[in-house]
């Protein structure tokens, strides 16, 4: 950004003025007598650029009437060129419009206009105080970050005497300016704030420690009260628990004893009832048996009489039967031969006649059955033959279907379906297609990796954009150098260390100042890099210049190394966490991640690429095998798919085959039924044949019996008499047998009655003995009942007493009672004597604890004091931690401040010494920090100078004699020289490269020789446009250094000021 012109209207007593400041390398002198208003021009420059050092009120003319409105305008035009060229049009004008109504505050409006032609602006932006977007703050930010022309931030304007005041300035003020210029003031303020915070933390810690000690003593006293309280509560609870436990055990003991005795009493009563009932039962049984004895005696006598009567009747019947038997024997002798035939008869004569009639009817039925059976047999056999023929046909068809089903099912098991086969064919087609695509992509990828391997083998690692830039510079005949050809990671570096340089490692360095780059890589002009020291390696960054560089490339590599180092300092543009930060944004990696700075990384990358190539070749071979296999599978599937379709069609006819199988099963079932039916008909046939034979046999038997009855007709009367006698004799014998049977039964009953009578007599004796025994037992039970009732009564009295004690404890000491019974387990094997002792001991301990005097609020008091102590102790520990953190932070800030100041002072001192040496002076810049009486930290920056060859210690150039005396210190020229050279060192150390600088009163205290020499030194070191304001007349040699000059004139009689421009011819 180079100033072109300055226009101002309404400023003090100046007439409207236009100052031509154009020319990138043209220096401008503004001169005029003292008081003419030269400095007003610098104030205008500062005002339009929103400098905090300029008071706008001071630009108003004092000769303006009070009732008149003040209107003013300042326009400062810049050309977008030089080292700090920005992303904007060619011309940029900054303007300030001022209006102040009478009695009103000043109204300001800043305007930024841009365009490629002067005064034909393409864009205009206005900034006002009330605008939310375009406010004065936004205007300052635009000046700082977009246009990089803030006069205070970049020290572009050195107002009246500012450049000459360093020598006479107080060292503390000098350090303040120095710290502001280098951004150290913030670190300094942070350190000073940390010291104040540290002091506050120390006071807080002391206060917290005192509070903790006092509260700890109070806590100790409360702990003693708590211990006494806890001991009392312990005895109270232990005694109460012992007392209550013993009472509960006694309660349980007596309850159990009462229950046991009650159960015993109940059992005795039940036993008494049972014995009484048993006596009653035995008496009743004895009475019953006595009655039975009488009954059995009567029954025995009755049976004896009946037996005697049976014996008499039996003798009479035996006489009658003997007489009938004699008559039968006589007739049998007469009818002996005829009787033999008669004995063979089984039917009577009438029965024979009826049997003949029935036989004829049965014979006719049998004949009809035989005829019907024959007909059904013939029909069944015909149906059986037809069924067998049909079974044979269907069975053959089913067997053929079964064979086809096995064949087709195996085919479908293998290929699922024709759809699946077709899907697999399609899938294989897609597989072949995708693998051919993979093969094509892999071949392209393999070609890229082979190219990369060739590049790695030849050690020419350049990205595509780097190649583009190298070609671009080669076409323009400009030498260019990639960063990796100049520097490298050292042997201590790890591979991951290269990542921190991802944002800059593809940078191109070129010989020249300004050029339009072909892409967005960093393109760095080597002429803009001025190393502040000779450096060949950066151990903190593990960087070094490449080995075996030529002598021509060594300085370029040193510059590149210094350029990289700047990104890791505390500057506006820096690299952190692999990311580059600048005031306008952030930037990441320039290219995809790869290793180009590390030999180990390149070797590892080479090995990786070789491995990838090998794997890619293997993958290509695998893909080729997959394609071949898939092609063969497609051919096989195309040949078999029609058969699969036939199998599917066959399988879809499953219902027809099932029906056929079902029909076969039905036919086989029918065959079984027909066989069974034929077997049944055959059995019927055989049965009918047997029946026919039996009928023939019966017919012969009936004819024989009919002939016998004809023969027997003549002796019918004798046979009938014999038959009658036999019948009578049989009846008499039956009566005799019946009486004998009855006689045996009567004997058994008589013996039984005798046995029963003896048994009853024995039972009566047993009942008498049992009654006597049960009477004695009943008397013993009555005695036990009386004893048990006495024990129960005594236990109940004791139980009531102990329950009253428990109720009193529960009512008076409910919590202790609840505590004591909680989780208690009553034991059952404790003796009564032990329980009584436990009760007495517990009662004594509990009563003593209850009556003891203690502080009942001791736990609450202790907890309150403990919480307060813990809170104070926590505050103390927290304060201690905070103090340690503050100490650590203060030390870190102090160390950072000292390192920063030392580094900056050392840089300035090196430049200051070299500049002073050119004027035969020795120079030194140093600093110190000390604490004043008020414990404040003060900083001082000393500028010391003396002529070469002089002895003695160097003193600060601001040192003067005390008490208004003279004769001590440096001369005025030496003051001005040291100030100018110190200011130059400060400007050089800012690491900024603006296109111009404005210096007011630059050479006021220098002689002609030093003036020219200092000017040349400023031009050489700053390499920017100089605008010098000087009140003096000058020699031609000095004037010739300026291409343009402006003269400020002032006429106090009018009053009026004006600017006249002069051009060198």
TrEMBL record:
CDD domains: ABC_ATPase (cd00267)
A biological process from GO: double-strand break repair via homologous recombination
GO terms, molecular function: ATP hydrolysis activity; single-stranded DNA binding
Any one Gene Ontology cellular component term annotated for this protein: Smc5-Smc6 complex
InterPro entries with a match to the protein in the record: P-loop_NTPase, Rad50/SbcC_AAA
SUPFAM superfamilies (UniProt xref): P-loop containing nucleoside triphosphate hydrolases
Coiled coil segments of this chain: 251-459, 657-812
Domain of life from the UniProt record: Bacteria
UniProt keyword annotations, A-Z: Coiled coil
The Rad50/SbcC-type AAA domain, residue ranges: 29-236
Entry-linked PANTHER family: STRUCTURAL MAINTENANCE OF CHROMOSOMES PROTEIN 5
Name listed for the protein in its UniProt record: AAA family ATPase
Organism: Anaerobacillus isosaccharinicus
